[in-house]
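Why Spermidine/putrescine import ATP-binding protein PotA? Reviewers of the renewal asked for a concrete example.
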Amino acid sequence: MPKGVFAESGADLQLAGITKRFPGFTAIEDLNLTIPAGSFFALLGPSGCGKTTTLRLVAGLEEPTAGQVLIGGKDVTKTKPFQRPVNTVFQSYALFPHMTILENVAFGLRRRRISDPVAKAHEALRLVELDHLAARRPAQLSGGQQQRVALARAVVNRPALLLLDEPLGALDLKLRRQMQLELKAIQTEVGLTFVHVTHDQEEAMTMADTVAVMNKGRIEQMGAPEVLYELPSTVFVANFLGQSNLFAGPVVETSTATLGIEVAGARIQVPRSRAQRETGMVTVGVRPEKLTLHATPETIPPGANRLGPGRVTDVSFSGVSTQYLVDIPGAGTIVVFAQNLTSGPVAGLGASVWVAWEADHTFVLADQPPADGRFVDDADTQAIAAQARERMLNELEGA
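Here is what the prediction returned.
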C-alpha cells in the first residue's frame, strides 16, 4: 500500500475479461467478476481450479495474459504489489520469529511511516483478543493465536481489500470452526472487503456473504451460500458443495407449476422454478438430508416424491446423524442422512425401505445427463490432472 494511506472502508473489486495462461496451460479463461465493497466473498473450488491464481492476480503477484484488475474503480493491472491497497493472509503465517507479537503487528505501519504505530498495533491486537500477549514471540503462541496475529498484522494496515489464501488450513477442526466465526465477526466490525480462497465448503458457507464456485478456470455458479446449496445449477456444484443424489430421466409431464420426470418407474415432481431444463432427458437431484426412510409406501405423505422399494446396504453412525446407503433398482445407490433423534438406526442393514422427499426439495440441473446414467465426480485431483493434461495437449497441437 502507498505510504501513509489508510482505507476508511472496503473497496469493490472488478475483474474484467481476465485470462491467465502459463506455458501449455490456461489457468483462468475470460473471468468476469465484481465483488461489492465491504462484503465477505469466497472463491471456492478444488485444487487446480484457478482460485489461488485469481488471488495472486489481484495481489499483483502474477500478471494477467489479458483483462483488467480494478480496485475501487481504479485500474491496477500494471501496478506493483506494494502499491496496491491490498494485504494478504496466507496459510503459513509468515510471522517474524525474532520480533514480539506487538512488533510483528506494528512492522508494516513503521515501514509506511504511519503515525503512532504502537497504539494502532495494540488496537488491532485488542480486535483479535490478543493484546494481553503483545510481549510474547510467535513460538510461544498456539497455531490459532498465530493465525490471529497474522490477521491483526493485515487488518492494522486498513487495506481496501484483504485477501485470505486458505488461512485456516493448518488448524485443527474445532479451532478452525471457532476461527470461522471470529473472522466473520472481525470483517463485520472493520468493514473491509474480504476475498477468501478455500476448498473447504463448510468454511465458505459459514463465513461468506457470496460464494463463487470455480471449476477449470471458470465460475460455475455464484450467489448466497444457501442459494447455491439449495438450488445448484450444475452437476459439479451439486457434488462439490455437499452431496447430492442425482438421477437421469425424461420429462413426461409439464404443467404451469411443475414438471413430471420418470425415474426408475416412478413419477418425480419438480417445481418449474427449480428446473434449469424443461424438456427431453434431464438430470434430477435431491440432497441426502432431505430424504426420509419408510418401511412401507403407506407411511409416505401424500404428494411426496418416492422411490422404492430398495435395500439398505450400509449404515454409518456419525454422531449427529446416520448415513444410510439404499440400493434401488433403476435408480442406483441413494444416500440418506437421518438425524439421530432417537436411539438406534431407523432402518437396519438389509432392510427393505422406500425413500421419500418433498417435491420442493428437488432440482433439475443444466447438465445433459450422461448416456449411461452414471454421474462421476470430477473434483478429485486425478481427474483434474487428466483434464489439465488434455487441455495442455490440445493447446500445444493448436500452437
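The chain has two domains: 13-228, 242-382. This is the kind of structural detail the renewal will allow us to pursue systematically.
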